[in-house]
Design brief:
The structure holds 2 protein chains of 2 kinds. Chain A has 19 helices and no strands. In chain A, 81% of the residues lie in helices and 0% in strands. Chain A has helices at 6-11, 18-29, 32-74, 81-88, 91-123, 128-177, 179-189, 199-217, 220-228, 234-245, 247-260, 270-278, 282-319, 324-348, 353-358, 361-376, 383-399, 405-431, 434-438. The longest helix of chain A is centred in the middle third of the chain and has 50 residues, at 128-177. Chain B contains 7 helices and 7 strands. Chain B has a 5-stranded mixed β-sheet, covered by helices on one side. In chain B, strand 4 and strand 5 form a beta hairpin. The termini of chain B are far apart. The chains are: A mainly alpha, B alpha+beta. The A-B interface holds A 14-15, 17-19, 22-23, 47, 73-76, 159, 163, 166-167, 170-171, 174, 179-180, 182-183, 186, 191, 194-196, 232, 240, 243-248, 250-251, 253-254, 257, 442-447 and B 1-2, 4, 7-8, 10-11, 13-15, 17-22, 24-25, 28-29, 32-33, 36, 136, 173, 175, 177, 182-183, 188, 190, 192, 221-222, 229, 231, 233-234, 236, 238, 242-243, 251.
Chain lengths: 447, 251
């Protein structure tokens, strides 16, 4: 692969083994949202919610491992999710899916930027404007200019930093404070956290699993990683990532327990501020800030890079063939526009973490069966995946005023599933009909 | 409500969890290559032993006296008739065939190389069968550098001669088609004058079983298949296995 070619920007240098594959996926999936949603989940659903959040993310990655194996073996030589859609769908289905992917991609990038903005706002005394400028500039350099090769170089550092922080800080603080003191503090101020009978949390976990899985199965950056990990190792890489990933929100939750022990708080965001206040050492504060920044930066740069790849390879290239120089030129322009929009959005909007996580839950859950149909169905059929996802999305949004948020996610999921199921039944009946059996391909005849 | 003991256990789990995660990752970095190497070595040993068996079968099957003497007689006839050009070509081809047979000891070769060997073999058979034999090889350019098992196509071609063309009179037509089917490589060998069923179930069956076994060893995690179908006029063998290029394996 030429180092100056656009393929190098998309795929980096080499095929990854399990270890580097795990690091690359971890860097993508340990995000600002993981840090920001953990305290909110903890406060709303108690300790069970905290553990459940970790398990639903981990399990979604493990489940995706089985799909990833099929993707890797079936679509050899492809680079992006767009390539696969191009191969399997007609132009209408392709553009429908691409529009959804771009909406979700931009939204995912927006979440990371908002997360970064929020962290910068909470952690640093200087105006958000300055922090965001620095963050977006780095994002442009790593994800926009550097490409996957540079992202991989930084992924290793990011993962070391993340593990170093979540191992070091809880051990230090719990040794310092003592578990009994923390327990007493929580029992006094937040006893609701300690109740284990919490049906709502199970509802949250099962719906969260759908949303996480839907996010993964449509995630542009994750698909790119599927294609660069060695085929025979791709499933194991995702399974191990799932198991390793779940340890991170669990550890973060324990940190927030420390932060709220023996005191009240104004809102879930302020928990990070509370946490900083109990880290009575400049070194620990510095490490924690770096940890947050690394998590957000690695996820955001992966997203920017994958959106750039998708835009050049699967959108612009559909209209006109580009030289390598033009590919880079268009890519840089696209990055700059994206970053400009993100900058404005981060300055004027303040979303809430759990809203961020579940905002597109309907779309994510509707896409699960559609993508599974595309991956596992041998024929090239556009109607079933497109129709099922569309009906799922519309059904979910129509039902949302009359149902809870979780119920509408399940409605989207079930509607698209039922439609895909009906298409499969119809197909199976057609295949086993006498007319179809008679017209089956005859054995090879050279005459 | 959680007791202090349960809470302590929960905290212990929270503190230990990232440690376990980090150690797992570290373990992967340290031992992944070693585990790969052991697995590769193990597979190679089994593959080599299977290859030896395949070679032995090949030698028994092909360098049998009647093939050898028939070929020598054909070459002798060319010499007696003073058809010098054809004679030189025949000796050259025969020599290539023998050389390839004795020198091939790798676990896989490219389609291109395997086909050159098959062509040598078919050229020799052409001297013997003359106008009776017609063969055609259709191979897509995209599969030329893909890997295959040594003697895979050769075994199928030899089966056609052994169980069909040498047993029955009439026009002998052989078609070899090698194509890419999504992520799979499809090798199809079809011969006219259908194989004699009894023979094919015994000797040809051994050859096909050996191919199937070696494919499973080379692609332990993938789908592979070896299917034989008989119609009134043709016998067709279709082999399917993942399309892998030699360059990919080197990486």
């Amino acid at each position: 692969m030429k180092k100056k070619g656009f393929d190098f920007y998309i795929q980096g240098a080499v095929q990854l083994g399990i270890a580097f594959g795990v690091v690359s996926i971890l860097a993508r999936w340990i995000t600002g949202n993981t840090i920001l949603s953990s305290p909110q989940t903890l406060i709303r659903y108690g300790l069970i919610g905290g553990i459940g959040y970790a398990f639903m993310g981990g399990l979604a990655l493990v489940l995706f491992g089985f799909v990833a194996r099929k993707i890797s073996y079936t679509f050899t030589g492809q680079m992006t999710i767009g390539d696969v859609l191009k191969q399997k769908l007609n132009p209408f289905g392709y553009w429908y899916m691409m529009i959804l992917l771009f909406v979700m991609g931009f939204y995912a990038l927006f979440i990371q930027t908002m997360g970064a903005g929020l962290l910068l706002y909470i952690l640093f005394p200087f105006p958000l404007f300055i922090g965001m400028t620095v963050f977006l500039l780095l994002l442009f350099l790593i994800g926009g200019i550097g490409g996957l090769y540079r992202i991989h170089q930084l992924a290793g550092i990011s993962v070391i930093l993340i593990f170093g922080t979540i191992i070091l800080i809880p051990v230090y603080l719990y040794m310092h404070e003592g578990v009994t003191t923390i327990f007493e503090g929580i029992r006094l101020y937040h006893p609701y956290l300690l109740f284990t009978k919490n049906n709502e949390s199970l509802w949250f976990i099962s719906t969260g699993l759908l949303v996480f899985f839907g996010q993964m199965i449509t995630d542009r950056a994750t698909w790119q990683r599927v294609f660069i990990i060695k085929k025979e190792k791709v499933k194991m890489a995702f399974v191990l990532t799932g198991m390793i990933w779940l340890t991170i929100p669990i550890a973060i939750t324990s940190l927030f327990l420390l932060a709220i022990s023996g005191r009240s708080f104004d809102n879930p965001y302020s928990l990070i501020f509370e946490l900083i206040s109990i880290l009575n050492s400049t070194v620990l504060i510095f490490i924690f800030v770096l940890f947050c920044f690394a998590a957000v930066m690695s996820a955001a740069s992966s997203e920017l890079q994958s959106l750039n790849s998708l835009f050049i390879r699967n959108v612009v290239a559909e209209f006109k063939p580009l030289s390598t120089k033009q590919q880079f030129k268009y890519k840089n322009s696209f990055s700059i526009v994206l970053i400009g929009v993100l900058f404005l959005a981060a300055l004027f909007l303040t979303p809430y973490p759990t809203q961020l996580l579940f905002f597109f839950g309907n779309i994510y859950s509707s896409m699960i069966f559609a993508i599974l149909y595309i991956v596992f169905n041998k024929d090239n059929e556009t109607l079933p995946p497109v129709l099922s996802s569309f009906v799922g999305i519309v059904g979910g949004f129509i039902s949302s005023p009359f149902t809870t948020y979780f119920e509408s996610v399940w409605i989207s999921f079930l509607l698209s599933g039922i439609l895909c199921g009906l298409f499969l039944i119809k197909k199976s009946i057609q295949q086993h009909s006498p007319a179809s059996l008679n017209s089956e391909e005859q054995p090879y005849d050279a005459n | 409500m959680l007791t202090i003991e349960a809470f302590s256990f929960y905290i212990m789990m929270c503190v230990l969890a990232p440690l376990i995660g980090a150690f797992t990752l570290l373990f992967l970095f340290v031992f992944e290559k070693r585990i790969d190497l052991i697995e590769k070595e193990k597979n190679e040993i089994v593959l080599e032993s299977e290859l030896q068996k395949a070679l032995y079968n090949q030698l028994n099957q092909e360098i049998q006296p009647h093939f050898f003497f028939n070929t020598m007689n054909s070459i002798l006839s060319l010499a007696r008739l003073e058809r010098k050009e054809e004679l030189i070509y025949s000796i050259e081809t025969f020599s290539k065939l023998l050389k390839h047979k004795y020198k091939t000891n790798t676990t896989f070769i490219t389609i291109e190389d395997e086909l050159s060997y098959v062509v040598s073999y078919l050229d020799i058979q052409k001297i013997r069968f003359r106008e009776r034999l017609d063969y055609q090889i259709d191979s897509e350019p995209v599969v030329q550098k893909a890997i295959t098992l040594p003697f895979l196509i050769q075994t199928l071609v030899e089966n056609a001669f052994k169980h069909s063309f040498e047993k029955k009179a009439g026009k002998a037509e052989l078609h070899i088609v090698i194509s890419k089917q999504e992520s799979m490589l499809c090798i199809l060998v079809a011969n006219s004058l259908p194989n004699e069923e009894q023979q094919s179930s015994a000797d040809a069956g051994t050859g096909l079983a050996n191919i199937s076994k070696r494919l499973n060893l080379l692609f332990p995690d993938d789908e592979t298949s070896v299917d034989i179908t008989h119609s009134e006029d043709w016998t067709t063998v279709q082999v399917l296995f993942p399309l892998v290029y030699q360059l990919d394996l080197k990486e």
